[in-house]
Every structure is written in structure tokens, then in C-alpha cells.
Amino acid sequence: MDAAEFRRRGKEMVDLIADYLENIEQRPVYPDVEPGYLRSLIPEEAPEEPETYEDVVKDIERVIMPGVTHWHSPYFYAYFPTANSFPAMLADMLSGAIGCIGFSWAASPACTELETVMMDWLGKMLKLPEDFIAGTHGQGGGVIQGTASEATLVALLAARSRAVRMILASDPQRPETDITSKLVAYSSDQAHCSVERAGMIAGVRMKKIPTEQSDKYAVQGETLRRMIQEDKAAGLIPFYVRTEHIHPLLQYTLYVSVLLVLHICIFVSGNAEKIWMHIDAAYAGSSFICPEFRPLLNGIEFADSFNFNPHKWLLVNFDCSTMWVRKRSDLIGAFKMDPLYLKHDHQESGRYFDITFSCYSQSIRFRSLKMWFVFRMYGLKGLQDYIRKHVELAKEFESLVRADQRFEISADVVLGLVCFRLKGSNEVNETLLKRINNGRKIHLVPCQLSGQFVLRFAVCARTTESRHIREAWRLITQLAEEVMQELPN
Amino acid sequence: MDAAEFRRRGKEMVDLIADYLENIEQRPVYPDVEPGYLRSLIPEEAPEEPETYEDVVKDIERVIMPGVTHWHSPYFYAYFPTANSFPAMLADMLSGAIGCIGFSWAASPACTELETVMMDWLGKMLKLPEDFIAGTHGQGGGVIQGTASEATLVALLAARSRAVRMILASDPQRPETDITSKLVAYSSDQAHCSVERAGMIAGVRMKKIPTEQSDKYAVQGETLRRMIQEDKAAGLIPFYVRTEHIHPLLQYTLYVSVLLVLHICIFVSGNAEKIWMHIDAAYAGSSFICPEFRPLLNGIEFADSFNFNPHKWLLVNFDCSTMWVRKRSDLIGAFKMDPLYLKHDHQESGRYFDITFSCYSQSIRFRSLKMWFVFRMYGLKGLQDYIRKHVELAKEFESLVRADQRFEISADVVLGLVCFRLKGSNEVNETLLKRINNGRKIHLVPCQLSGQFVLRFAVCARTTESRHIREAWRLITQLAEEVMQELPN
């Protein structure tokens, strides 16, 4: 395919995309296929000779679409939102064409520099403490990671490296393996599974801080303090606490985070251990651009690193997980390598955040273009409006649930997610969810709260409107009625 | 921006992209900017109110392009190729629109399944041993990772986990930290810096196997055998060998790999330790689709995992680093977590390779669409032609160098990269390279071979033709003349 054909096919693809997104709500949101469905639809080997574009494009409907879960359907209420906006898609097209690999400043200065500046723009929207802004002379700053899981790992590695450096400074003879074998990281027992995974990868103990329903699953500073004291008494080295503003899949922890951050901050600021505090607000972070939600981030003053995902709720297509650190040198210390082939004249300028030294992958796409397009074409006000609309829609769904005696709300609704259930057994709720998803008209996933099987209703798609919420509720109540009628009396 | 405006702007963007790529060789390939150039060109904060698309798009030439290193210019000969093809860009547009997050089969079955099948297609193109093909009943298979660095880390983690399991099986009381503190991994002293980084992250000893110029920097099986014996005698646990088919930035190691693989295979297959062997052919791997280059992969029969980057040389835009394992369960063992919110009815079907359990990020884009479009629209033959053309161009450049008495070839030319230098001091070669890059007409980076400063000439862009090679050589010889005339007699 040459440029001339690309001009034609590219424009057809633009129309195909617009058609797809404009008509998406007519598709079943959740696919009706069995595992292995796709293999039988296509050949077992790649073709020897080229096929035409027509051949390929007609297979999109035949092969791909039947197996797609349509995340951008206004009837998709599962998991959490993932961003999808036209400005971000346009920027991604440009990024693909420029196709530079940003593994150092010299590999494409615009790629490194726009990222540093966009992270400052976003940090200012969030009113992050000055320390996290790179500016022209700051020691902190932000980089884009692929996912919050990566950010969690990167923060843990930076913390591990800092802890080892600090201990070696006072005890240079101590073997490094002895230090790392005694390090302990802490995280709420409500945390996302990627936290445990990060501990596994970094080869450090990751302890779960027990939480109680009566505390709304908030980690209690006192619990953490006691764990840390006991661990120190046993010869271990506490070095990292990860807290979250909102569990990506479980709204309930929103409150956890608020209390947790304040408690831990007081605790951490009052001790000399220099325990690294990483705050993960993967989903909730986007809402902090609204003054009314910004108080949820109080405590950030005491954090060493902070992360959230604009690719969830800020209209910047995946992947774009933004991470700030108070000291760039802490990240660089965790990763730095200096081979000749990556050296260039401006190596140590300090005027940007060299990406090679701040994330695991080393090679990255030109991802900041998406942020630039989205921030400019929506403006801060447009983005705030977008967040507020989703919160309103969640409140609308909540009030529908509350108005129905058969249902209960399982956790306070603060942002865009409603946890609810039929008053009754877990079985009846499981049956209800199965009916909902088998209907394929709307899609939800469950969570567990204190042993209860709970339905999660997350406002996800950019195009979700009040009418979709009401239609979803109509379907849910209709199916609930069926399920309840079938119950033995 | 609504769908109607996207139809218009998207088509403009398609033309912008086609214009950019059709006229790219008229741009200086390497930018003439100082660090920090970009910050002063744009506001310090995001706008409050939305801007128009025209405002944004006109800043592409004003703000971005002056700072871009044009990797797809036919005058770009630096680093290594990175893929850029129209079919891949079209597929990426579609991937952005579908915008699903493939973290489990249920999150979008087509995303998981197409990836498994495309990895089979590609594995068959490479004639990988049957064990690496998933098929409908295989135990092995492939997944897409973001970069070769990630694949190296993932393989190391899987190896670590397998080694720990094996030792615990015979000695259940042994503390895990004791085992990991004694694990040793091995890698050539010519290896990419990401290998050392992977060892650092996983918290295991990574030992460099010394190589000699007289062996063409090939790791000698005997050297490795001795190291392993000594380490075992010292109570350590050898568990992982990483070998590479070609250093991504240094052609020279191509021969390393060939010898290395054969030596190590004989060694590994003859011992009972079950040392994990990971082969990384980040750049060279694409060439193995040609029968004449496939012998370079001999030895793969003994490997546990294999990785290369179609996003380098196989026309699939970044990111697409393909990794196969002989046993999917080894990867799953290294990562598996099972929270309720990721459970679905088809959890253990074994008919696909669940992505959540096989890479670090957990969330991924629909990257296999790019492979599908590229493989079908080029066909195997078209891809082979593409590889062969680049190899031919490298040979053409080599013969130009060899015909000039002032220059020498520094390493055998096998694929698309030529290492060469002026006969003379390192200083004169450094000066030459600086002049070349300051001219901004062509772009090269250096490497070091046995203390010699060497220029690398990599055939990179899809559109590079013989005339570009000859023009590059004309420029190089012209600048060499200047540099040599300035030398003190």
C-alpha cells in the first residue's frame, strides 16, 4: 500500500470508525461467543501472497466484531471507564505516523519535552504541590507510564533502591541481599492484585494491612503503626507504603483512601524512617481537576509519588498512566544505565525528564500528543464538565436504586460508580447478574464487599446519557422481577 | 468534537500524514534544537476554554516538527529500524476506536484470541518448533509484549519462579529469600543494558560472561560451563541464561549468538539443572522468515522462551514485541492472581493465552490487529522481499566502504547494519560523526568495538532506496575529506 492508497483507505477507515461509534449502542454490548470462536474463522497460516484491503476490511465485521466487548457503548457499565475521544484518536494517528521511539532526548526531543510539559500542565490542573512540577528548575516532575500497575512497580523499585542506598550509607559493609531480604512494604488488604504482583516481581515482602467493615475498610494509622513497630522489632526494614484513592474496581475504597492518607501522612511525617509513600488514584485522579473533588487528594503533600490514569476518565485514549515524583533522581537512581549508544551531547541538561531512566520499557511511543490535543480541544472547563456529568449520572442511578425497596446501595456513591444489590442472598444476586449479562443489552461485573456479592454499575462511556441509565435500570428491574418470581416461596 | 467533525478532521489528518511521509526526506533528519526548546513555545498551563482544531493542528509544524528526529526518513541510519507501514497505521486507528482493554478473555474475546492466533501465524512463518505454537491443544504459545526489555524481564521472572518451585519441591522448609539470594543468571558481556536492569528489578545476581575479540565476542560454552561450576561450588544456584541473536544496537553480536546458542544448547541439554534459556533476537528475528536466514535460529529447540520485535523490522508499528514460551504455565506461574472481578465463565478453557497472566502491564491495547493487517496485506512473500531489500542495501553500502581505502569495515555485515570507521584514531572518527550529525542531512550513532569508536550505518526506513544509500555515502566521504584535511600532518 502506497501513500496514495493510504489517502483513500485512511479516509474510509475514518468513516468506518465514525460509523462504529455513532451506532455502537445498536450492538450487543457483550459478545455471544465461546472460547476459541475466532480460530475457526480465519486460515491457520498467514497468506503467501498479499491480499487486498477489501478482503481485510470485510473481515472486521465477520471475524472481529462478533468477539468484541464494546467498552464505548453507552450500555457498558463494567469494570471502569476507559477513555475514547476524537481528539485523542487524531493525536494517536499522528503519533503513529511520526513513529519515533522516545528512549532518550536525542531520539526525538519533541517527544521527551512535550511529555515533561504536558505532565506539568496536568499537575497544575490537579493543583499538585509545587515539588511535583518540573518547570525549568524543579527537582520533581512527571512521566507517562503504560498502566497503574507499572507505576506501582516503578515506585516500589525506586523506594527499594532509595532504602538500600540509605542503609548502605550508614553501614557500607552490609550485603545488599541481606538488606532486600528484610525490606517490608505495606498495602491495604483492599488493594488491587497488581500490588501483590509488584512485590513478587521486586522480590520484597508485601504485607497486607487488615481493614474492618466498621471503619469502612479504611486502613487505620494505628494498625499500620503497630505493624511497623513489630516488624522493626523483628529486625525487618519497613520502606514503602502504597495507598490508593480509589480502587479501580471497587468504589468502596474511596473513603478508605481519604482517611488512610491523612492517618498515614501524620504517621509518616512524624517518623524518621523515610518510608516511601506512593498514592495510586487510578480512576479517581481525573476528578481532582474539579475543586469540589480535590479535597480527596489532601495528604499528597507527604507523598513521594502519585499516579492516576487519564486513560480511564480524562478522555485520553489508552495507554496514558501519569506518574509524578517529588525527586526525579529517585527514579533515575532505580534504573540508570549508561551505554555509549544512548549518549548524546545534552545528556545531563536537567531541562527535561529523560524517559529511559524513568520507566521500565525504555522505548515509548509519542504519547503526550494525546494529552496535548485533548487538553486544548476540551479545555479545563470541558474536562470538568465531563467528570461532573458522569458523577451526576451515577447519582441518578443511585436514586433509582434507592427508590426501589427491593434493592439496597452497598457503598456510598461519591464519583461515577454505584455498588448495589438485591436485598437477599448472594445466590439471587449472582443469578440476577448472570441474567443481565446473558441479555447482552447492558454489561456489569460484580465485586465482593464483606462477603456479599455486589453488583457494580460504573458510568463508563463518553456518550452515556440519562436515557441510557433509565433504560439500564428498566432492564435490571425487569430481570430482578423474573429472578424473584422464580424463588421458592 | 463530535463524530461529524471527526469525519472531516480525520480525513485531513490522513492527508497530513500522507504528506508528511511522502515529503519526509526534505526535512533535516535530526533536529536543530537545544534542550528546553519546546517549553517556551507553548503556554505554561492548559487553556481554561476549548481551542479549535485549527489552533492545534497549526502548532504541529510550529512546536512539534522542529524537535522531531525523523525515524522514517530514508536518511535515518541511527539506532535500528522501527516499523512504519500504512496497513499497521490503519489497524491502529481501528484499535483506538474499539478501545477495549484486553486484561482477560471476557474483557474482549476478539482481542485475546486474535493475539493467540497471530502469534501462531508468526511462529509458523519463523518455523518455530511445534512446542511454541498454541494451536488448539498446545502447551506453549505467544503473547505480545511492549518491548524486548519487558520480554527479558518476564522471562527472568518466569525462570525465577520455576527455579524456586523446583527447589521447594525437594526442600520445602527452605526459606524463599534464601533461595532467591543465591540465584544466578548469566548473560553475555555484550548484552543490552536492559538485561542488567532486569536483574536489578528481579533482585537476582546477573553475571556477565566475558567474551573475547578473538572469538568474535562469542560466549564460549566452556567459559559458561566453568562459571556455572564455580558458582555451584560456592553454593549458588544457576537458573537462567539469556542469549541474543543480535544486539539491537550492535550488529557484531550476530555471530556471537550463533555460536553462543549452539554451545549453550549442547551444554544445557546435557545437564540436569533445567537452566532457563531465553533467546532475544529483537532486531534479527524478523529476518528468520527468510529461509536463507533461518539457520541463525538453530538451537531454538533447546530454548524455553524466544522473543523478537516485529515493531523493528517487520512493518508492524511500535509497540509489538513478540514472545513465545514452550510452556504457558511457566508464565502463568510467575504472575497469576485471581481476584473476583476478573473471574468469568470461561476462566480455564485453555483455548487461548490469557493476557493478564502473561505480561506485566495487565491492561493492553488491541495490538494484534496490526499484525493481522500487515501479514495479510504484505503476505509472507512481501515481507520476505522487504527484509531482503534492506539486506541488499546494507551490502551496497558495505561495498562502497570497502572500495574506499581510507575506511574499514569493523564487523562482518550479515543483515541490515554496517559497522565501519575511518582507518585512524578514535578522535578522528568522533569528529567525523559529529560533522555528519551536525549536517542534519543523515543521522548515525556510534558504538564501541574493542575500544574502537565505530560508526553504525543501519538501513532503517521503509522507503530507503539505493539512491539514498549513495547520497549518504557521498556525504560521509565529503565530510571525511574535510576532517582528514584538518588533521595535523
From TrEMBL, chains A, B:
The protein's required cofactors: pyridoxal 5'-phosphate
CDD domains xref list: DOPA_deC_like
The protein's assembly and partners: Homodimer.
Pfam families per UniProt: Pyridoxal_deC
Keyword annotations: Catecholamine biosynthesis, Decarboxylase, Lyase, Pyridoxal phosphate
Signal peptide residues on this chain, from the entry's feature table: none
Protein family: Belongs to the group II decarboxylase family.
Keyword Lyase: yes
Source species, domain of life: Eukaryota
PROSITE patterns: DDC_GAD_HDC_YDC (PS00392)
Coiled-coil region: none
CC per GO annotation: cytoplasm
GO MF, one annotated term: aromatic-L-amino-acid decarboxylase activity
Protein's recorded name: Aromatic-L-amino-acid decarboxylase
Protein's gene: DDC
Top EC category: lyase
Source organism of this protein record: Salmo trutta (Brown trout)
